Design the sequence.
């Protein structure tokens, strides 16, 4: 079955960076866009951006431009999301999801990133 | 504040029919495909509806959805206690070039 398995929880200092991985299986990796979504504690879902593994074309949320980098490794069917210049309000659960502009399915289990001062 | 407006909460008794609205604009719901997600506390969201009104395999037919103009809605008929969850609508926006999520609706079964 299709699975997206994310890396474990992270605790980072503000100003630092974090890189979350998302290993996929059960489908042809390059055939589907990967989207990243985050959810701050007690809040709703926030779209961060997407990447096409075919050509590594990306589309980032404007407010994250310059701080977020999404990449893929087709040899391991893994997607990565790096967020730099971390702030306290970047504390959230980060999800990778298969899919792009139409629907998102399935979702990874989520990675909690905690940013402290 | 999300550009897709959902009521923050909705409640009903077992067996009741509950409807959740998702209001947008021409550049998003008016032009593109709406999807809905169900999220239980502490777990990742799951796809509930795709292509405006299609249910993935495994989703009970108690769940249905529709879209008209710049609004969409999710209906739960025969409400059950296991339906207590947060529900989100989502759609691509042609002007902003982003996926928009509604603010989410917390469903409570009384």
Sequence:
């Amino acid at each position: 079955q299709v699975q997206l398995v994310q890396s474990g929880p992270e605790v980072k200092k503000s100003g630092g960076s974090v890189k979350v991985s998302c290993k996929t299986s059960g489908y042809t990796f390059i055939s589907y866009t990967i989207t990243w979504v985050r959810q701050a504690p007690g809040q709703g879902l926030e779209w961060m951006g997407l990447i096409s593994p075919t050509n590594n074309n990306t589309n980032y949320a404007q407010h994250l431009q310059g701080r977020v980098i999404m990449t893929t490794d087709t040899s391991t069917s893994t997607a990565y999301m790096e967020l730099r210049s971390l702030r306290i309000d970047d504390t959230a659960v980060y999800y990778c999801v298969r899919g792009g502009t139409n629907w998102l399915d399935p979702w990874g289990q989520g990675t909690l990133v905690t940013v402290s001062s | 504040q999300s550009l897709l407006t959902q009521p923050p909460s909705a409640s009903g008794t077992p067996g009741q029919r509950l409807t959740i609205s998702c209001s947008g604009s021409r550049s998003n719901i008016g032009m593109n495909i709406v999807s809905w997600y169900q999220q239980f506390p502490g777990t990742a969201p799951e796809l509930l509806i795709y292509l405006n009104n299609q249910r993935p395999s495994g989703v009970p037919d108690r769940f249905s959805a529709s879209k008209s103009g710049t609004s969409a809605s999710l209906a739960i008929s025969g409400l059950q206690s296991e339906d207590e969850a947060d529900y989100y609508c989502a759609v691509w926006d042609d002007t902003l070039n982003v996926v928009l999520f509604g603010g989410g609706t917390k469903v409570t079964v009384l």
In short: Chain B has a mean pLDDT of 96. The beta strands of chain B are 9-12, 18-23, 35-39, 46-49, 63-68, 71-76, 85-93, 98-101, 105-109. The longest strand of chain B covers residues 85-93. Chain B touches chain A at residues 2, 32-33, 35, 37, 44-47, 50-51, 56, 88, 90, 92, 96-104 (CB under 8 Å).
